[in-house]
Specification:
The complex is a heterodimer of chains A (96) and B (252). Chain A starts with a helix and ends in a 23-residue tail after the last helix. Chain A is α+β, with helices and mostly antiparallel strands and 96 residues long. Helices cover 22% and strands 21% of the residues of chain A. Chain A has a domain of 61 residues: Phenylacetic acid degradation B (Ubiquitin-like (UB roll), Roll). Chain B has a single domain, classed as Ferritin, core subunit, four-helix bundle (Ferritin, Up-down Bundle), CATH 1.20.1260. In chain B, 68% of the residues lie in helices and 0% in strands. The longest helix of chain B has 29 residues. Classes of the chains: A alpha+beta (96), B mainly alpha (252). The interface between A and B is small, with 12 and 11 residues.
């Protein structure tokens, strides 16, 4: 019965500093989009964590299926040549 | 009253407004309808407490008798508090809390906007800092007022009753006295007459969007600004002060 009265769930993404990307921070319940932004501000930026907030209805997120994870991710495991670890770093190059 | 005493008295009104509203909101901490709203309320309550501390501290420094923010908050009696009657009204249901919040915050925002330009530098700085918080409170409260007013039949009726029930306490905000007059003249402070016009315009537009009828002009209660409080007030400060009264000077 209560389930019908629950506000929908939103996922919250916070950008901590200009130039960085938004990172998933958690989720909030809210009755509408604007309320979700306010709630995200109140719940996840209380300690000065953010300069920008994104919220999106959790139901709008398209996620990969855990059952398919072996098909999706396993093949990359033995392709070590995709990592840039085979290059000789020339002398004199710093900060690489 | 000397010029310094006048400024101290004005600061204490600002401080008492912030402290008493903050204390009221603290009473409903842990009783929020949703976790998110619970945090919003606690954040808002703490904003007022922070503002009260800045005003008290400044008043204490001006006074020069060694009174701290705690002395002002916990060691004064009922008749020494100068907050508006509106702010000591009980929380009631969520709609009542929101009605009190929005009617006051629209006024408080206008008051702080005017104080940003006052000639006392420190007060102007506190106003600038506080304004950022109050603008957020208003955003939060106004949306709730509209959501509930323009919501279901029941929420509309209850929100309307909340606004109409508190209306008689809104007049005191604009009932100027010699202190308001001195603040305006000596420090380029707020002009309550023009604030009243702006307040009415803004409240009318919020109520219209919330589909709530604008209350008629009616008799307005006053007294808080001069230390005459409603029956609720004694209980409020008794709870607020009990620890410091029982253990004077107690510290965390």
């Amino acid at each position: 019965m209560m389930a019908d009265k629950n506000w929908p769930l939103y996922e919250v993404f916070i950008r901590s500093r200009s130039g960085l990307s938004h990172k998933h921070a958690g989720s909030v319940h809210a009755a509408d989009d604007q309320m979700a932004l306010d709630h995200a501000r109140d719940v996840y930026t209380r300690r000065n964590e953010g300069v920008s907030i994104w919220v999106i209805r959790s139901s709008e997120i398209i996620a990969s299926d855990p059952a398919e994870s072996s098909a999706l991710f396993e093949p990359a495991k033995d392709k070590i040549y995709r990592h840039p670890t085979f290059y000789e770093i020339p002398d004199g190059v710093e900060n690489l | 009253m000397s010029k310094k005493e006048t400024l101290i008295a004005y600061l204490l009104r600002l401080a008492d407004n912030a402290l008493i509203l903050g204390q009221r909101l603290i009473e409903i901490v842990t009783a929020g309808p949703e976790l998110e709203e619970e945090l919003a309320n606690a954040n808002i309550a703490l904003d007022y407490l922070g503002q009260a501390r800045m005003f008290y501290t400044y008043a204490g420094e001006l006074e020069g008798k060694g009174r701290s923010e705690d002395d002002f908050a916990f060691m004064r009696d009922e008749h020494e508090f100068r907050n508006l009657l509106l702010l000591e009204q009980p929380n009631g249901h969520f709609g009542d809390t929101i009605a009190r919040q929005v009617t006051f915050d629209v006024f408080y925002r206008l008051q702080l906007e005017a104080l940003q330009d006052c000639s006392d530098k420190r007060l102007a700085e506190i106003a600038v800092k506080s304004l950022k918080e109050i603008r957020y409170h208003l955003r939060h409260g106004t949306k709730w007022l509209i959501r509930l007013g323009d919501g279901t039949d029941e929420s509309h009726e209850r929100m309307t009753n909340s606004i109409h029930g508190l209306w008689r306490f809104t007049g005191e905000m604009f009932a100027g006295d010699e202190l308001d007059e001195a603040m305006k003249k000596e420090w380029n402070g707020p002009d309550l007459e023009s604030l009243k016009g702006e307040w009415h315009e803004e409240i009318a537009s919020i109520l219209e969007e919330a589909t709530i009828s604008l209350p008629d002009e009616e008799w307005m209660a006053r007294g808080g600004k001069n230390g005459q409080h409603s029956e609720h007030f004694g209980y409020l400060i008794a709870e607020m002060q009990t620890m410091q009264r029982a253990y004077p000077g107690a510290n965390w």
